[in-house]
What we know:
It holds the Pfam family FAD_binding_8. The protein has 331 residues and is an alpha+beta fold. It contains 9 helices and 7 strands. The longest helix has 32 residues, at 267-298.
Amino acid sequence: MQMLKWSKIHVANVPGEISLVAGLVMWATTIPGIRRKMFELFLDTHYFYVLFVFFFILYVGINYSCMMLPGFYLFMVDRYLRFLQSRQRVRLLSARILPYETLELNFSKSPGLSNTPTSIMFVNVPSISKLQWHPFTISSSSHLEPEQLSLVIKSEGSWFKRLYQMLSSPSLMERLDVSLEGPYGPASTHFLRHDTLVMNSSQLTMLDLLHPLSGTSSGFSNLQLQIEAYVTGEKEPTTQNSKLLQTIWFKPNASDAPISAILGPNSWLWLAAIISSSFIIFLILLGLITRYYIYPIDHNRCQIYSYSLKALLNMLIICICIAMTASATVL
């Protein structure tokens, strides 16, 4: 019966067990076979981190949770800012229908936003699914195209098929609502330490190899490139695959905005202001609640007021302070 015990003033077993199960589920989906073949499952199950952290804090109490508070607090700030970014509608300039059921989406971008090689963006098309977010590698360089960001999307999965059907349909499409989150990356830049690189790729993975070469426009003259390209196909091209390229231009909308840094050009300064001000407000509210609500009940004996309820109050105050200061800064 100890497994079902939820102690009021000591360690509670039930939230610890829930946190353990959530952690095991996330760990199971990180197995390479599952992560690569079922990425959407991998991504969705990792939202269990909310349950993992929430019940972990209820399990150990807020006092022991302070050891992870700095990292958790910074993560919450970043996550909420990304959420605010994902709520915006970005300006989709055009879409190109390429051979072999491949799409290129071109977005308007603020010149102040720079993306590094091999960066990725998460894309959401509400008309297809309001919940599905899919990652794609950026195929443009912010140094060569400062006001445009391009994504090339390969033919894989039901989500892409619905998007491809929408764009390739005979009916004229004047507008497509799209939300973006990112950019994230790069995963690694260790290759920049070498003087000579031998790179092999196929299909759209060649984009990842071309990114390091497109870092700056002035660097091309200093590069000694030897390129060998072989155009092959796994099967004979059909009539559909052999059709000419098609470009769809979308009408601008006043509610759309170029892709930009969520906190503007001086993002580091605004981020420091959000972190410091929200934490100061958190300490003030925590002190007031402890003095005028918890102390009259418990009188600092830690034997009456519930550990779990105290942890819940602290988490609620943290979320309110971060949401309040970040929203005020962005809006």
